[in-house]
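Structure tokens please, single chain.
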Amino acid sequence: MRAGHSAVGLCLAWLAGGAGAQVASPGTVTAPSALTAARYATPLTTQPGDPVRGRRLVVDRQQGFCLLCHSGPFPEERFQGTLGPDLSLKAGHRVSAEVRTQLLAPTLFNPDTIMPAYGQPATTGLRVHPQFQGKPLLQPQDIEDIVAFLVQMTP
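Here you go.
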């Protein structure tokens, strides 16, 4: 039980950048305000996202980390997470700005999420692997590639 609390504490510490989130009761999923969503509408890079590279990042447990918590239509991956929602649930119904917001500021959707803000530097001293201390978990092009993949994913 203690290890689970440490993991949750670590992820919540990563999410400290969630100021501006709508107030909601624990476990409630909310949509970000239009003003906040507009902040994430613009791509992070001038190069368009590559959905093929985005898929590779999603299934890569050493770089994208998605399948540590999520599952999806990835038959080649035997072990997939069950903490987060299945990535295929919204297939065919995603909008780039919403996916980008989810990756950059997940607490705007769910203030109690354990999903890290992938564009924010990982906080040092909170059991963060040394290779990530003070660095973002994903680079801007990585985020755009994952956005491109998730938006084009079909049911």
